[in-house]
Amino acid sequence: MKLLFEKGSPGRTGTTLPALDVQRSDRVPDSVRRREDAALPELSELDVIRHFVNLSRKNMGIETSFYPLGSCTMKYNPRFHEDVASFTGFAGLHPRLSLLPEGEEYCQGALRAVFEAERFLAELLGFADFTMQPLAGAHGEMTGLMLIAAFHEAKGEDRSVMLIPDSAHGTNPASATLAGFSARVIGTDAFGNVDLASLEKALGPDVAGLMLTCPNTLGLYDANVRQINEMVHASGGLVYADGANLNAIVGRVRPGDLGFDIMHINLHKTFSTPHGGGGPGSGPVGVCAKLVPFLPVPHIQEHSNGSLRLKHESAYSVGPVAPYYGNFLVILRAWAYMTTLGIEGFRRVSENAVINANYLRVRLQQAYKPAFERACLHECVLSASAQARLGVRALDIAKALLDRGFHAPTIYFPLIVEEALMIEPTETESKETLDAFISAMLEIAALAESAPDAVTAAPLTMPVRRLDETTAARRPDVAALDLEETP
Amino acid sequence: MPYIANTAQDRKEMLQAIGVESFDELWHLADVHESPPRFNLPEKGLSELEVLAKLGTLARENRTDLICFTGGGVYDHFVPAAISHVVERGEFLTSYTPYQPEASQGTLQAVYEYQSAMCRLTGMEVSNASLYDGGTALFEAILMALRRNRRRKVLIAGTLSPIYQAMVRTSSHHLAAEVRVTSDEPDQCADELLKSLDEETSSVVIQYPDFYGTIRDWTPLVMKAREKGITPICSVYPLALALLKTPGEMGFEIVTGEGQSLGIPLSFGGPYLGFMTTTSDFMRKMPGRICGRTKDLSGKPGFVLTLQAREQHIRREKATSNICTNESLCALRAIIYLALMGKTGFRRVGELCASKASFAAETLISIPGVRLASSDGFFNEFVIELPVDAKPVVSQLLRKGFMAGIPLGAFREERNKQVLLAVTEKRTREEIVGLAEALGGAL
Amino acid sequence: MKYYTEEHEWVEVEDGVATVGITEYAARELGDITFVELPEKGSEFGQGDVLSVVESVKAASDVFAPVSGKVLSANRILADRPELINESPEEDGWICKLADVDEKELENLLTDAEYGQMVSNLSKD
Q: Do A119 and A241 lie in a common domain?
């Protein structure tokens, strides 16, 4: 499809604007005036809509296809949340209003939604308090790590090492580095748990904490989790829970009760807010009582008369990590989800997510080797190592699934599993959908044996075939600049 | 219970296939031996109808009928209705990061077009697919410069948004970097910046137009900085670029900003859109996702995420940044906005803003005792000085239905009589005159 | 004579100047190379410091200085044609030349035979 910039005609515009009702004049000094208009497209409103609607048709989404992308929790995003997010009372509210003198009075409803979401999460997950500021999961990680650093700093302790299991998501070590820690890797044992000997060896007076994904990225619950947390605490460190996989245990296990000191969660995973092609997300961070003084400001507090006020100053606060209260409209959707579900609903979320994942694991293990021979939680990690020996790799299986109308699972992650296929069905998928997916996976496995070339040629039914990523990275073309414009 | 498709019968069959009698058995097999917690939360959920009613009530407790003359980084611009209708297409809304390019050409081409438009707007050569917001984007730019020249001083204009200053302080606390902030008086700030450029400075950060609305040509500072190997960084209000010279033309090496003005509603603070554009020299140091144009096996043009070797999922602790999810849907809003406005419409929005702001400034200073705080040029935001403390006046105007700007005393006591006002294309002559009358009355 | 590191770099010292690159094994393991971050002329490195980064589509690998020294020149051809490392890793695809080399440091490195043995063990795994 042609680019926007290759379409249109000079003088065309896709909007109507009011006539100027004051004299035309401005205060822009000539020295900083743009000499030519920005080279934007010139299209009608219909041209623009048709362009983007046709682009959308080249995408798979949850609403078009089963989307078992492991560790991303691609569950159904309730449609009425989109209506709520567009209410003028929310979408039209200026964040600065709350900062004006007496301005909080004028946005109590919005402050109430954020405050209640905070309280709900704190109770659901067993923490003393939450900050809703972080704008995505990795931003939550960085915020959490800054809180850990501030905690040790306030105690006058010099602890610069962050322990991270080898099965962790790449954002963990990257966030640790950004927060000023050096990452030290600890191993995984034969059952997919943290290797306790490796942990014991790594602990010491220089260790600030441990980042643990719970349940872990293999989709497994670490039965030693309480012991691990005690070991880290005994050596003076804090334990950080990465909540990327919260969907597996929500409503059934409270991470705060397990001894975690701090945790980020992803509202765009467990709390059903749409992923939007890669954001916006939201990564609230919960903390135990001793870390509360370090939380970012501004922070919402309930006054004795029931009204909500903003606290801007706090002696130990790390400061703001986002301009206002986080991704408000995302938090609002999550509020709607929490209120719709109730505790009973959350228990059924984890129950159905776990049953769905185990059903896939059991039905697929005849053809694909499970990474670990044990019951999983919300996702199962399989290996295409047997297929790889026939010349069909995890990537090929992913592409073959696209041709069969399914989005691919996460592949090649976790790094410690050879030819990994990480499959997360979520609770919102039905047995029929899973059965159809299982048939496709088994058919691909059979094809890998009988006609491997038919698998490696996939996809053939998508808008494009496999793309040349090597040339894209060698000679990057990342923008159509004015000069290249074709008439 | 909504959103769960499986019936009791389905679950029974699935548990049988798994080889267990009950879910509890499966839960124990999965090694979870925690006793069920008790929650002080509602056990039962509510229906869609009830949740809508509750949220309707909360929405009504927010005053969105106030006439908005407040900016400070977030602006009340017109958002064409077509944008929301397009971004709510399920294929855009419910997809994720385009890891499988063959199944994500829609998102990828839109990102490529967004990147192209942001380059054209800012006068730069490359753009990423978006970052979280203007403040985090600015911090990422500072990190890029630190990585590139391995120096440790960061020089920040005191006229940078106070919120961004605070965010940079928070995020840089644990880095081996020394952050220095100049005076917030525009002239003094420019002088100090010019004098402070030295061989240890990694980057110099300015805002354009600055927090107080002032615009100046930063070319001399930028040239001097580059001579000394310092990376000049510009945080820009993108809608102002409808009329203003691009940061690229002034020679900036990294441009970041808040893209909220490009078709994104006020939304009480988010989600917004952090953007970043830079020169091709800096391309491989840039954080975040980047989309590139390439060809498929049959020679057909297509798009992929590229330069991924910089990213956390490959480089882990050595990655250029920890960023993973960004603000893709907001970037989509921005490119649809720019496409709808187009070349002439976008300029026209800029003209409307600038003309109305100019009219508002003139009208307000005709009130006895009110004057402009500076004679510098501006786009659509400016500071007026009142004869009295501004804070109670702004509260009083709020009660009369006007969001009459930001009283600046909170940032520095000496500015307590000043108010920062913004005027967008949405304000009418009548509303501006109304504000002047109300202000006159309040004084 | 060429020497090798356990991290798959090679170095050859001639007239006090060391030429450095990555081995054929490393180039093959990385796959199609898409970018080489070349060290700046005049910068100094200790033995084992990160000298350069070699990227492929799905991987990035640090190149460690096999010996300490000061960068005399970098192979500018790689800026436009990183694939040269795949085509000729141990000759035309060299990464940089180092001056002020301490030849004693070569004793810490592997000989051709030792490295060959190491790689054949790796290939067996």
A: yes
Can you give the CATH number for the domain in which A366 is found?
A: 3.90.1150.10
What tens digit of pLDDT does each residue of B383-393 get? Answer: 999 999 999 99
Q: In angstroms, what separates the C-alpha of C58 from chain B's closest C-alpha? A: 6
A336 shares its domain with A371: no
Residues B276 and B362 grouped into a single domain: no
3-state secondary structure of A376: coil
The residue with greater pLDDT, C58 or A11, is A11
Q: Quick: pLDDT tens for A329-348.
A: 999 999 999 999 999 999 99
Q: What is the DSSP string of A106-132?
A: GBHHHHHHHHHHHHHHHHHHT-SEEE-
The interface residues of chain A toward chain B in range 198-257, judged by CB-CB distance below 8 A, are 220-223, 249, 251-254, 257
Q: How many domains does chain B contain in total?
A: 2
Report chain C residues touching chain B, CB-CB < 8 A.
Answer: 34-35, 37, 55-60, 62
Q: Do B307 and A123 touch (CB under 8 A)?
A: no
Query: Does B284 sit within 8 Å of C37, measured CB to CB?
Result: yes
**Mean pLDDT computed over A169-197:** 92
Mutation site, C32, C33, C35, interface B, largest B CB count within 10 A: C35
Task: Give the residue carrying structure tokens 């970097």.
Answer: B177
pTM: 0.97
Q: Are A49 and B82 within 8 A, CB to CB?
A: yes
Structural domain total, chain A: 2
End of a domain among B276, B306, B337? B337
- Residue A246: predicted pLDDT: 97
- Structural domain including A269 reads 83-340
Residue A2 lies inside a defined structural domain of this protein: no
Boundaries of domain holding B93: 81-337
SS3 A366: coil
Interface with chain B: mutation pick from C53, C63, C80, highest number of B CBs within 10 Å: C53
Task: Find the Cα–Cα–Cα–Cα dihedral C45, C49, C51, C52, rounded to 10°.
Answer: -160
For the stretch A67-110, pLDDT in tens is: 999 999 999 999 999 999 999 999 999 999 999 988 999 999 99
Whole-Å CA distances, B388 to A358, B66, B370: 70, 23, 9
Q: Is residue B333 in a domain?
A: yes
Could you tell me if B324 and B352 lie in one domain? no
Domain of B121: which CATH number? 3.40.640.10
Q: What is the pLDDT of residue B1?
A: 61
Q: In the 8-state DSSP scheme, what is residue B244? A: B
Nearest CA in chain A to C78: A474
Contacts of A470 in chain C (CB under 8 A): 32, 34, 56-57
Q: Is A164 inside any structural domain?
A: yes
Q: Which of residues 159-178 of A touch B (CB under 8 A)?
A: 169-171, 173-178
Interchain CB distance below 8 Å, A38 and B121: yes
C79 in contact with A, Cβ within 8 Å? no
Same domain, A188 and A156: yes
Closest CA to B14 of A351, A407, A218: A351
Distance between CA atoms of B291 and B269, rounded to whole angstroms? Answer: 27
- The strand pair at C17-22 and A182-186 is best described as unpaired
On whether both A373 and A328 belong to a single domain, the answer is no
Query: Per the domain annotation, does B410 fall within a domain?
Result: yes
| Planar angle of CA B355, B356, B360, nearest 5 degrees | 120
Contact state of B243 with A33 under an 8 Å Cβ cutoff: yes
The predicted model gives A22-49 an average pLDDT of: 96
Q: Please tell me whether residues A351 and A440 are part of one structural domain.
A: yes
**Residue of chain B whose alpha carbon sits nearest to that of A479:** B116
Interface test with C, best of A474, A475, A477, A478 (most C CBs within 10 A): A474
Task: From A152, B32, B253, select the one nearest A162 (Cα to Cα).
Answer: A152
Other beta carbons within 10 Å of A2:
11
pLDDT in 10s for each residue of chain C, 125 residues:
899 999 999 999 999 999 999 999 999 989 999 999 999 999 999 999 999 999 988 788 999 999 999 999 999 999 999 999 999 999 999 999 999 998 899 999 999 999 999 998 887 65
Q: Tell me, what amino acid is at B241?
A: L
- Given A291, A312, A340, the domain boundary residue is A340
Q: What is the mean pLDDT of chain A?
A: 96
